[in-house]
């Protein structure tokens, strides 16, 4: 889903048809950057890439965008597809669900609007901005390319509402919103269940973790079960790098060190030995991990307390 990073820019993962008319979509990370005047495309979140690879692989200039719209007719077989039209080509994207698609379309259209001073005459006959006739007003324009010519159309002022402004409205239109297959918040990968049969897996997915010594950030696959949380080099590995037992975790919370560490969607797992800093791929996933881990810790604590109570009763009976 699109969210705001620490710099206040809209960003997030989407599938993208990089080669025009290829029909092949790849998972990419996008940033709507007003400072650069462009939509920036990266292989992954730049924070997770080596410094030498942090340059965008593609830039779509906001001034070249005429509009963004749903592309059900152009790509009928691609679910949640929308298109961004520029003077050079059409760029096709695939969002994770209907709500995200509406949100991206709305944000891109808002970012690509052009605002310029207007000299519309006021009722007194003097142009606005004249020293005797009031202040200048900014008018929003929508740009369109017609026959190769860029045409700017004034957008009427007034309250701006989008289909994605109301969660209730979205929920009514889309009762079942699907999650991203790779990074779905609260999701459990079916292949993980096959890899670990009989294991009570509560949640699984990719996150980025800070190292204990070098403080470098590496992408790891996390699995939470009723015994603890483990992380692996990949989702196909059977041997974990490390496992943190639930009984050693005191809390899991959204990190207050986000601005200083410069990581979005950061949460911390506090254990007896150290605090683990973990970055999720979206705000939803961050909240889902925090809730799932805390619920698992609470359930484990209740189980241990009940076990201790039963053992105490047995000893008292024996004595």
Report on this model:
The protein is of the alpha+beta class and 319 residues long. Helix content is 21%, strand content 34%. Strands 1, 2, 3, 4, 5, 6, 7 and 8 form an eight-stranded antiparallel β-sheet that branches. Strands 15-14-13-12-18-17-16 form a seven-stranded antiparallel β-sheet, with helices on one face. A hairpin with a 2-residue loop joins strand 10 (137-146) and strand 11. The longest helix is centred in the last third of the chain and has 36 residues, at 283-318. The chain is elongated. The chain starts with a strand and ends with a helix. 26% of the residues are buried.
Compile the SSE list and pairings:
Layout: E1 3-4, E2 10-16, E3 26-33, E4 38-42, E5 58-61, E6 65-70, E7 81-86, E8 90-94, H1 98-111, E9 114-118, E10 137-146, E11 149-154, H2 167-173, H3 190-195, E12 201-210, E13 217-225, E14 228-232, E15 242-245, E16 249-254, H4 258-261, E17 266-271, E18 275-279, H5 283-318
Antiparallel strand pairs: 1-2, 2-3, 2-8, 3-4, 4-5, 6-7, 7-8, 9-10, 10-11, 12-13, 12-18, 13-14, 14-15, 16-17, 17-18
């Amino acid at each position: 889903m699109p969210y705001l990073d620490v710099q206040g820019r809209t960003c997030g993962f989407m599938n993208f048809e990089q080669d025009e008319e290829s029909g092949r979509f790849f998972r990419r990370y996008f940033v709507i950057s007003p400072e650069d005047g462009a939509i920036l495309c990266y292989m992954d979140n730049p924070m997770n890439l080596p410094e030498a690879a942090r340059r965008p692989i593609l830039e779509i200039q906001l001034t070249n965008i005429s509009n963004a719209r749903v592309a059900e007719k152009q790509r009928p077989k691609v679910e949640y597809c929308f298109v961004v039209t520029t003077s050079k080509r059409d760029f096709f994207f695939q969002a994770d669900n209907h709500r995200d698609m509406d949100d991206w379309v709305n944000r891109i259209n808002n970012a690509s609007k052009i605002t310029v001073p207007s000299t519309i005459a006021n009722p007194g006959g003097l142009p606005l901005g004249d020293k005797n006739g009031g202040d200048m007003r900014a008018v929003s324009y929508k740009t369109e390319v017609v026959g190769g010519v860029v045409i700017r159309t004034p957008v009427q002022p007034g309250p701006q509402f989008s289909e994605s402004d109301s969660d209730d409205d979205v929920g009514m239109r889309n009762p079942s919103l699907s999650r991203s297959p790779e990074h779905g918040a609260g999701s459990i990968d079916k292949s993980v269940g096959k890899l670990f049969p009989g294991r009570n897996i509560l949640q699984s997915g990719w996150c980025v973790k800070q190292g204990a010594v070098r403080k470098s950030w590496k992408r790891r696959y996390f699995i939470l079960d009723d015994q603890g949380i483990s992380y692996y080099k990949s989702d196909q590995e059977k041997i974990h790098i490390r496992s943190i037992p639930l009984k050693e975790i005191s809390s899991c919370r959204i990190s207050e060190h986000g601005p200083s560490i410069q990581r979005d969607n950061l949460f911390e797992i506090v254990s007896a030995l150290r605090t683990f800093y973990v970055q999720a791929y979206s705000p939803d996933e961050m909240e889902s991990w925090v809730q799932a881990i805390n619920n698992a810790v609470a359930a484990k604590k209740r189980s241990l307390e009940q076990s201790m109570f039963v053992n105490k009763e047995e000893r008292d009976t024996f004595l």
